[in-house]
Write a structure and sequence with these properties.
alpha+beta; C8orf32 fold; about 375 residues; five-stranded antiparallel β-sheet; 9 helices
Length: about 375
């Protein structure tokens, strides 16, 4: 894949020296009221890079997905003392981010981004397929092709073929892969952040443990290998679960609440939400001693093939992102704020060292 898909130096040179407000009202005809099933949230990302003796650049993910059924972005505003700041967009996946730059020697660099969006729960009725238009050919190619960490050949293909043996339809194949992930993986609490998603290494080593960016990436890679369009959806939890799952929600300080989910395209249904990684999270975290046979796990497992509780913000579906203006390597995905100086990339999984916080709250409309 061509990673030179951002407008690079020229765009950065044109970043505004001012920091404009950009929050907007709900689009015409869109009713975000709770009576319509929608809830509106505000997420505040505050970055205060600790390095002030050299130039620093920060990339902050912005909500990038709009779907009339389950998520609407309502805009972003930002303020701070960056020398330049502006929005960049990935032209392949549409991932948007705020890029902020401070000059060397600038004291106490800081920026705050306020993102507002509305969500409502998603659920597919598999008993009632509809007249869903076919997936666009360009999108089908994009979401069936391999990426650097999601190969679709070798052990990945072999594993997927074995897991789907006997499945007669795409829906059967997708469900078989989902059940295989639930049965054969484990959540590893020692995995840094949300994991990396290096699925070939997972399969070759036989170590099928990790967190959401590992386990759901495994679903996506296996699905793509057998011709099912699939994609990771990178985001962050923004509220407690209304269904009582303490492990499947987070509110207030959400600095470490990033969560990756997955979707698979099925004829008659369109993009179908799945989340086998959260099944394994319930097993590990909901209460001590749970197994896949316990009722609370069985309920989550049944729900999470075809449904998402939308106490969660979806940022983007992008892979292998070359950050505009960066001298470093591409990032596998953009779910955390990123920072860089001449000395190299800051550790996005160390918010205390990098110095950023993320908070969320539900707001009235």
């Amino acid at each position: 894949m061509d990673r030179r898909r951002f407008i690079h130096a020229s765009a950065l040179a044109g970043l505004s020296a001012s920091l404009p407000a950009a929050l907007r009202a709900a689009p015409a005809g869109f009713d975000p009221s709770p009576a319509s099933g929608w809830r509106t949230y505000e997420v505040v990302t505050r970055v205060t890079p600790v390095v002030s003796d050299q130039a620093v650049t920060v990339w902050i993910p912005l909500p990038s997905l709009n779907n009339d059924d389950w998520i609407r972005t309502l805009g972003n505003e930002w303020s701070g003392n960056a020398a330049r700041a502006g929005v960049a967009e990935d032209t392949v996946y549409g991932a948007r981010m705020l890029v902020a730059q401070w000059s060397a020697g600038q004291a106490a660099p800081e920026i705050e981004v306020v993102s507002r969006f509305a969500t409502r729960d998603r659920a597919i009725d598999f008993a009632a397929p509809g007249a869903v238009p076919p997936l666009d050919a360009t999108e089908r190619r994009l979401f069936t092709q391999p990426t650097e960490l999601l190969p679709t050949d070798g052990i990945v293909l072999d594993t997927a073929q074995k897991a789907t043996r006997g499945a007669k339809t795409d829906t059967d194949r997708a469900r078989a892969l989902y059940e295989w992930i639930c049965d054969n993986t484990e959540r590893n609490p020692k995995t840094r952040g949300c994991g990396l998603g290096d699925i070939r290494s997972m399969l070759e080593s036989g170590n099928l443990s990790g967190k959401c960016a590992d386990l759901n990436a495994l679903f996506v890679g296996l699905a793509r290998s057998v011709g099912l369009p699939a994609r990771d959806v990178y985001g962050i939890r923004v509220a407690d679960s209304k269904f009582g799952y303490k492990s499947l929600g987070k509110s207030g300080d959400i600095t470490k609440a990033q969560h990756c989910r997955a979707e698979v395209w099925l004829a008659g249904y369109g993009w179908v939400p799945v989340d086998p990684a959260d099944v394994r999270k319930v097993v590990l975290e909901e209460r001590p001693g749970l197994t896949l046979k316990d009722d609370v796990v069985v309920a989550a497992r049944m729900k999470l093939f075809g449904a998402w509780e939308m106490n969660w913000l979806a940022y983007n579906v992008a892979h292998d992102i070359a950050l505009p203006g960066s001298n470093g390597a591409a990032v596998p995905f953009l779910m955390y704020p990123q920072g860089e100086t001449a000395a190299g990339r800051l550790d996005s999984l160390d918010p205390a060292g990098f110095s950023y916080t993320i908070t969320s709250r539900e707001v009235a409309v």
